[in-house]
């Protein structure tokens, strides 16, 4: 396996993970139906970012890891 291929696999997996985490933060996870005698029925759809706020920062961390791999690649580390 060439050194380029050795770096390509983790970079692609990190980017794929970041995209999947971002997509999970935008999809609907839960629909809440609440009923109150005074205000009646209220419906709210909770997306992933509402339910688990850490999804987007973790995705950004994965993208930052890709940038770190790109920067460190040329140092011989």
Please tell me about this protein's structure.
This protein is of the alpha+beta class and 77 residues long. The protein has one domain. The chain is built from three helices and two strands. The chain has helices at 3-26, 48-51, 55-72, and strands at residues 28-36, 40-47. Strands 1-2 form a two-stranded antiparallel ribbon. It is rod-shaped. 6% of the residues are buried. The mean pLDDT is 88.
From the structure above, extract its key features:
77 residues, two-stranded antiparallel ribbon, alpha+beta, rod-shaped, 3 helices
Quickly describe the structure:
The protein is an alpha+beta fold and 77 residues long. It has three helices and two strands. It has one domain.
| Category from helices, strands and their pairing | alpha+beta
Overall pLDDT? 88
Count of DSSP helices?
3
Q: Could you give the order of strands across the largest sheet?
A: 1-2
Please, how many domains? 1
Strand coverage percent = 15-25%
Q: What is the chain-wise order of helices and strands?
A: HEEHH
C-alpha Rg (nearest Å): 20 Å
Topology:
Blueprint: H1 3-26, E1 28-36, E2 40-47, H2 48-51, H3 55-72
Antiparallel strand pairs: 1-2
